[in-house]
């Protein structure tokens, strides 16, 4: 009873969402497909001739509920289009699928990046004969940062976790370089020490290696796009963190990022490059171009990135500009109080991204003519 | 929490549901899903046998499954011998489902 009732309630909610003027045609098509899944599921649940496995139906219903949550958060008018645009650009390199990015605004200091289960879409196709082409993804960020792009750089780290999970990069690294023989990680027992542990302890130590590899990969991934802006933000957001079961220490994270930035050989970086190569994915490398912002930001004017490399480079360069102006303002910036400098650099960054969006849109419309 | 929640970061939820039908839980699933399950088991055991064979086309479920069964050689060997869904015995499925319980890889 509850399962069918839940499905009908979700269907009603999707019908309401379909009337939201905010949604693009891509979202409307996706909502329509999700609604079709519910209708077909209800039919199969009531069918005598062609019934569906109840546990499978419940699993699908649970996932539809989960996916509906992605859509509800995006009906607000609080969406940071500029940051979402930069994230969309970064993710394009890592998937062939069309992603529908939605945004959730949080009242907490947290960020996440979440996608639907590929197994759900496979089951919908095989059991209900409905093909859903696009994939919904939700990014979440704090409400107070929604117009502070420089404080949203952790989204690139979260995107790294998403790309990892979507391609099983860390899992691949564990198969190619197990915790018992792979490169030793800072703060953790050596691979030889892990190999010598009794079963249960080895399992716990391996779980810690998994978590730390996931964090290191996400850090390196984000550094590929926003350079030192993430480590700079982390130093302020969670300074001097000791090692925990789930995260390496701040010192170890900084060291790995410094090696990546300077091109210093590091077996952990090489391990990830090997896993990415095995999965047929691009390597970890800097995608950003450093930008001289003195002529634009220095005169309190936005910059116009001419390429995606400059778009990504804007994050690190603007972060560095903010650090400089915070510590020792120059030119017109000497007249602004400290807090205004933070607001203004974030505003200029947001406007600079918007400039890139406008120029691209303009060029695209000309190309179409 | 009222009940155990699905681990959404895992790609093996569907596989577990399908495997439980072998133990006699509920209506059978489609032939397509049964074939998919066998393909997945074969790919995972191939990865266990030779991780260097992982490539762009290896399904992520196979990679995740391989990590779970890698340290249970007897189970991996038995799974490698299964060529059809109907050849999955309830005992083998029970062992596999137990192996999938812990999340540590």
Relative strand content of chain A: 5-15%
In DSSP terms, counting alpha (H) and pi (I) runs of 4 or more, how many helices of chain B?
Answer: 5
Number of helices of chain A: 14
Spans where pLDDT lies below 50 across 5 or more residues of chain A: none
* Terminal CA distance of chain A: 56 Å
Structural class of chain B: mainly alpha
Query: Outline of chain B, from the CA principal axes?
Result: globular
Task: Name the average pLDDT of chain A.
Answer: 92
Number of domains in the coordinates of chain A? Answer: 3
How would a textbook summarize the main sheet of chain B? none
Overall form of chain A = globular
The SSE string of chain B, one letter per element, is HHHHH
The stretches of 5 or more residues of chain B where confidence is low (pLDDT under 50) are: none
Give the % helix of chain B: 55-70%
By DSSP, the count of extended strands of chain B is 0
Distance between the termini of chain B: 25 Å
Give the largest interface: A-B, 37 and 40 residues
Task: Give the beta-strand count of chain A.
Answer: 3
Provide the helix percentage of chain A: 55-70%
Strand order of the largest sheet of chain A: 1-3-2
Please tell me about this protein's structure.
The complex is a heterodimer of chains A (369) and B (105). Chain A is mainly α and 369 residues long. Chain A folds into three domains: 2-150, no CATH class; 166-278, no CATH class; 297-368, no CATH class. Chain A has 14 helices and three strands. In chain A, strands 1-3-2 form a three-stranded mixed beta sheet. In chain A, helix 1 packs parallel to helix 3 and helix 9 (199-226) packs across helix 11. The longest helix of chain A is centred in the C-terminal third of the chain and has 31 residues, at 338-368. Chain A starts with a helix and ends with a helix. Chain B has one domain (13-100). In chain B, 36% of the residues are buried. The mean pLDDT of chain B is 86. With 105 residues, chain B is mainly α. Chain B is globular, with a radius of gyration of 13 Å. Chain B has five helices and no strands. The longest helix of chain B is centred in the middle third of the chain and has 19 residues, at 31-49. In chain B, 55% of the residues lie in helices and 0% in strands. In chain B, helix 1 packs antiparallel against helix 5 (90-100) and helix 2 crosses helix 4 (73-80). Chain A binds chain B through residues 51-56, 59, 62-63, 66, 114, 117-120, 122-123, 126-127, 165-168, 171-172, 174-176, 203-204, 206-207, 210, 278-281, and chain B through 6, 8-9, 11-15, 17-18, 20-21, 25-30, 32-33, 36, 47, 51-52, 54-58, 60-61, 63-64, 66-67, 70, 102-105.
């Amino acid at each position: 009873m509850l399962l069918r009732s839940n499905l009908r309630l979700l269907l009603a909610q999707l019908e309401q969402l379909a009337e939201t003027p905010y949604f693009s045609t891509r979202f409307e098509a996706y909502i329509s497909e999700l609604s079709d899944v519910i209708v077909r599921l209800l039919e199969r649940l009531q069918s005598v001739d062609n019934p569906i496995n109840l546990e499978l139906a419940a699993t699908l219903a649970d996932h539809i509920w989960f996916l509906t949550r992605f859509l509800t958060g995006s009906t607000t008018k609080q969406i940071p289009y500029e940051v979402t645009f930069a994230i969309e650009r970064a993710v394009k390199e890592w998937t062939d699928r069309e992603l529908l990015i939605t945004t959730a605004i949080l009242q907490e200091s947290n960020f996440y990046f979440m996608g639907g289960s590929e197994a759900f879409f496979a089951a919908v196709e095989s059991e209900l004969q409905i093909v859903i082409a696009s994939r919904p993804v939700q990014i979440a960020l704090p409400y107070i940062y929604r117009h502070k792009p420089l404080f949203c750089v952790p989204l690139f780290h979260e995107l790294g976790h998403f790309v990892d999970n979507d391609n099983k990069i860390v899992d691949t690294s564990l198969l190619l370089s197990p915790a018992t023989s792979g490169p030793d990680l800072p703060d953790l027992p050596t691979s030889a020490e892990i190999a010598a542990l009794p079963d249960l302890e080895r399992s716990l130590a391996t779980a810690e290696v998994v978590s730390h590899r996931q964090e290191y990969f996400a850090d390196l991934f984000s550094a590929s796009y926003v350079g030192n802006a993430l480590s700079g933000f982390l130093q302020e957001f969670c300074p001097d963190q000791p090692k925990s079961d789930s995260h390496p220490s701040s010192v170890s994270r900084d060291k790995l990022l410094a090696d990546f930035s300077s091109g210093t050989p590091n077996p952990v970086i090489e391990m990830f490059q090997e896993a990415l190569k095995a999965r047929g994915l691009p390597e970890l490398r800097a995608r950003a171009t450093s930008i001289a912002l003195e002529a634009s930001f220095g005169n309190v004017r936005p910059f116009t990135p001419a390429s995606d490399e400059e778009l990504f480079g804007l994050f690190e360069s603007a972060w560095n500009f903010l650090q400089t102006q915070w510590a020792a303002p120059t030119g017109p910036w000497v007249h602004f109080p400290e807090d205004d400098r933070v607001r203004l650099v974030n505003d200029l960054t947001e406007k600079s991204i918007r400039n890139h969006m406008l120029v691209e849109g303009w060029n695209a419309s000309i190309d179409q003519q | 929490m009222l009940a155990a929640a699905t681990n959404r970061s895992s790609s093996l939820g569907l596989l577990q549901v399908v495997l439980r039908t072998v133990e006699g839980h509920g209506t059978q699933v489609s032939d397509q899903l049964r074939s998919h399950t066998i393909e997945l088991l074969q790919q995972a055991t191939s990865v266990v046998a030779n991780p260097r064979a992982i490539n762009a086309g290896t399904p992520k479920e196979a990679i995740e499954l391989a990590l779970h069964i890698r340290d249970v050689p007897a189970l991996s060997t038995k799974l490698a011998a299964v060529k059809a869904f109907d050849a999955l015995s309830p005992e083998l499925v029970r062992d596999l489902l137990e192996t999938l319980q812990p999340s540590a890889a």
